[in-house]
Each structure stands twice: as C-alpha cells, then as structure tokens.
Amino acid sequence: MSSIDIPTAARVARLARIRVEQADLPKLAEQLSGILDFMEQLNEVDVEGIEPMTSVTPMRLKRRQDGVTDGGYPEAVLKNAPDAREGFFAVPKVVE
C-alpha cells in the first residue's frame, strides 16, 4: 500500500501548478494514495499475450494515403492572411 504524505502532496500540487489550500492537503494526500493503490492493483493483472485495444468492440483504425496536397482550397486558406503573394503567405524579412 502506497502512502503519500502531506509534504509530497504539496509538492505534487506545486509541480502540477494547482493551488491547494493547506487545509485540503490531507484529503489530496489520501486521494493520491488511493490512485497509487489502484495502479498497484492494475499491475497484478496478467496481460501477457493480450493485444492492445482501440475500442471495446473489435475494429480497425481508418487509414488514409499519406500524401502532400494543398488541401483543395488554397484561396480560402489565404483569404484572411494579412499579406499573401502568388499563393503563399508573405512575411516580413527577418534575416539580412
């Protein structure tokens, strides 16, 4: 059984950039300990020879041809550009 102490919970909150009031740290430590306990339970499951799933129903992922295109509507893409020339975005020169 993993046990997260209050200073560790405070450090985790700080690293996650989550503001946690001092009074709420014991509850956070308890919840984090529960998460780690659940993860330890998952490690006990034998998954040898089990294929990873993308869904609970058997299905293949849709695949498409990987090819470079202009998207089919370059005028619409460039319509809101501040400066477009000859079908491209024009940007200020930054290198002399």
Automatic annotation (TrEMBL):
<comment type="subunit">
    <text>Heterotrimer of A, B and C subunits.</text>
</comment>
<dbReference type="GO" id="GO:0006412">
    <property type="term" value="P:translation"/>
</dbReference>
<dbReference type="GO" id="GO:0016740">
    <property type="term" value="F:transferase activity"/>
</dbReference>
<keyword id="KW-0436">Ligase</keyword>
<dbReference type="GO" id="GO:0050567">
    <property type="term" value="F:glutaminyl-tRNA synthase (glutamine-hydrolyzing) activity"/>
</dbReference>
<keyword id="KW-0547">Nucleotide-binding</keyword>
<keyword id="KW-0067">ATP-binding</keyword>
<keyword id="KW-0808">Transferase</keyword>
<dbReference type="GO" id="GO:0006450">
    <property type="term" value="P:regulation of translational fidelity"/>
</dbReference>
<dbReference type="GO" id="GO:0005524">
    <property type="term" value="F:ATP binding"/>
</dbReference>
<dbReference type="InterPro" id="IPR036113">
    <property type="entry name" value="Asp/Glu-ADT_sf_sub_c"/>
</dbReference>
<protein>
    <recommendedName>
        <fullName>Aspartyl/glutamyl-tRNA(Asn/Gln) amidotransferase subunit C</fullName>
        <ecNumber>6.3.5.-</ecNumber>
    </recommendedName>
</protein>
<comment type="function">
    <text>Allows the formation of correctly charged Asn-tRNA(Asn) or Gln-tRNA(Gln) through the transamidation of misacylated Asp-tRNA(Asn) or Glu-tRNA(Gln) in organisms which lack either or both of asparaginyl-tRNA or glutaminyl-tRNA synthetases. The reaction takes place in the presence of glutamine and ATP through an activated phospho-Asp-tRNA(Asn) or phospho-Glu-tRNA(Gln).</text>
</comment>
<keyword id="KW-0648">Protein biosynthesis</keyword>
<dbReference type="InterPro" id="IPR003837">
    <property type="entry name" value="GatC"/>
</dbReference>
<dbReference type="Pfam" id="PF02686">
    <property type="entry name" value="GatC"/>
</dbReference>
<dbReference type="GO" id="GO:0070681">
    <property type="term" value="P:glutaminyl-tRNAGln biosynthesis via transamidation"/>
</dbReference>
<comment type="similarity">
    <text>Belongs to the GatC family.</text>
</comment>
<dbReference type="GO" id="GO:0050566">
    <property type="term" value="F:asparaginyl-tRNA synthase (glutamine-hydrolyzing) activity"/>
</dbReference>
